[in-house]
Design goal:
5 strands, 5 helices, about 160 residues, alpha/beta, Rossmann fold, globular
């Protein structure tokens, strides 16, 4: 059985990878599906002195719950078993490490297309993951078209 890891961030775009996993499940032997949401650290360590660890953990857990909800519902409604994972850390590195830990055969995700300029300046999770992962990374394009209305108006 193929074991796949699907990183999700709560966006509609990320669900395209879940739909692809569902398509694969219908087409043949259903894969063992693992969802993961990685929360990038939101606070500098210096600012967390004095904050109770439970509050920080609760914050990250709640953010992950929101991010995983849509993907979990799709898979549950389709009757496809899955395991959801939550983590905090550098996103691409954490996804690659989880894929190794779980013994995944593949990673299935959507590139988020923030634009090539932002990708050049900031790098993208998918680009970093392509370099870090020890298994194939399949990038699934979503059907959503970017909305440039209002941003490219000539005056």
């Amino acid at each position: 059985m193929k074991r796949i890891l699907i990183p999700v961030d709560g966006s509609e775009r990320a669900l395209a990878a879940v739909h692809e996993a569902m398509r694969q499940a219908r087409a043949g032997a259903p894969p063992e599906v693992h969802l993961i949401n990685v929360q990038a650290p939101a606070f500098a360590e210096e600012t967390m002195v004095g904050l109770p660890a439970e509050k920080i953990d609760t914050y990250y857990y709640q953010q992950s719950e929101k991010a995983l909800a849509g993907a979990e519902k799709l898979l549950r409604d389709a009757g496809i078993p899955f395991t959801a994972h939550r983590a905090v850390g550098p996103v691409a590195e954490t996804i690659a490490a989880k894929a190794r830990e779980l013994g995944c055969d593949a990673i299935l995700m959507t590139p988020h297309g923030h634009g090539w300029i932002a990708g050049l300046l900031l790098g993208s999770v998918s680009t970093k993951l392509l370099h870090l992962a020890e298994v194939p990374v399949t990038l699934v394009k979503d059907k959503a078209k970017p909305d440039f209305s209002g941003r490219l108006s000539a005056s």
